[in-house]
Design goal:
The complex is a heterodimer.
Chain A lengths: L4 E5 L3 H12 L4 E5 L2 H11 L3 E5 L7 H10 L8 E5 L1 H4 L2 H7 L3 E4 L4 H11 L3
Helix pairs in contact in A: 2-3
Chain B lengths: L15 E2 L14 E4 L4 E5 L3 E7 L3 E7 L4 E6 L17 H14 L8 E6 L14 H15 L4 E6 L5 E6 L5 E5 L1
Parallel strand pairs in B: 2-4, 7-8
Antiparallel strand pairs in B: 1-10, 3-6, 4-9, 5-6, 5-7, 9-10
Helix pairs in contact in B: 1-2
The chains are: A alpha/beta, B alpha+beta.
Chain lengths: 123, 180
């Protein structure tokens, strides 16, 4: 069985590396994008099983990117977890209205991230 | 107990009422506001409007009608797997016990406590019927701990496929939920 594919969208190299380090242990195939626009393009190109999406990014923020992904037939059902700072968490009402599936707060906790990812992948 | 300096403003919007209370959004003007993050709990004998946003996470709200003390938690995972993971309040079994302890420390009467339960959504249709998705497990552990402590659950809005915005008033135990 091919490994499940996860798209990581974040403009912070540190966060991307951290997510990569945590998720590589579970043998997922990881694809990376550095802003909302690239996130949408990579989602359409690689058809991930799940997306981790930062909120504040250049070019297009995470909420807008989620909205675009939900409007596209090819990506409308992909689970999307918003990765947000504490300060941004209060705006998660907007995140859910955009169509995200769940959210986690930075700093990223390994157990929490893995639990949410596995849950949304039905593992 | 966690207290934040960055308090959320509550915008009145139509919300689903719990237990036949008014469907109109609560007026929170005369209450202090508090935003509860995942992995935190909050309890107070004073009037607070506590807001939190739930996906597969669960919040237990406790209230003592005699002393008018109220408290709420927001946990992410059902049980502590035994690692040294810092904030135990992220785990349901410990977070609910800690909330009960906090209420008693604040002066609530153990036999007066009543609970309301919120969250535990499963946003993916394909997994909703599964009994082992995270939301279901979170709700289950909350029910188990409350049951073991003999605290009745007098209202709930759990499961389903949508996230929730919850506002809990610590001084009268009322709760409003908006499906997101």
């Amino acid at each position: 069985m091919a490994p499940r594919k996860i798209l990581l969208v974040d403009d912070s190299e540190t966060i991307l590396q951290m997510e990569q380090m945590i998720l590589e242990k579970s043998s997922y195939e990881l694809v990376m994008a550095r802003d909302g626009e690239e996130g949408i393009a990579k989602a359409l190109e690689t058809r991930p099983d799940l997306i981790l999406m930062d909120v504040v990014m250049p070019k297009m923020n995470g909420f807008e990117a989620v909205k675009h992904l939900r409007e596209n037939e090819q990506t409308r059902r992909v689970p999307i977890v918003m990765v947000t700072s504490k300060a941004e968490a209060e705006s998660m009402e907007t995140g859910y209205e955009s169509g995200c599936s769940d959210y986690i707060i930075k700093p990223i906790d390994t157990l929490e991230l893995v639990a949410k990812v596995k849950n949304l992948l039905g593992e | 107990m966690y207290r934040l300096s960055n308090l959320a403003a509550i915008t009145p919007v139509a919300k689903q009422s719990i237990n036949g209370e008014s469907a109109t959004a609560p007026r929170s003007d005369d209450r202090s506001k508090f935003y509860l993050h995942p992995g935190q709990l909050f309890g107070s004998p004073d009037g607070y409007a506590v807001t939190t946003i739930l996906g597969s996470c669960v919040s237990v709200c406790l209230w003592d009608p005699l002393t008018k003390i109220g408290g709420i938690n927001h946990f992410l995972l059902p049980t502590d797997i035994g690692d040294d993971l810092g904030s135990s309040l992220r785990f349901g079994d410990l977070a609910v016990r800690e909330l009960i302890e906090e209420m008693l420390d604040l002066g609530a009467e153990p036999h007066q406590l009543r609970a309301k339960l919120f969250g535990g959504a499963c946003v993916l249709e394909a997994f909703r019927s599964r009994e082992n998705h995270l939301g279901t497990k979170n709700v289950k552990i909350a029910r188990e701990v409350l049951d073991a402590a003999d605290i009745p659950i007098i209202g709930h809005d759990v499961g389903g496929d949508r996230g929730r915005k919850l506002i809990f008033h610590t001084d009268n135990g009322s709760a409003w939920v908006k499906q997101l």
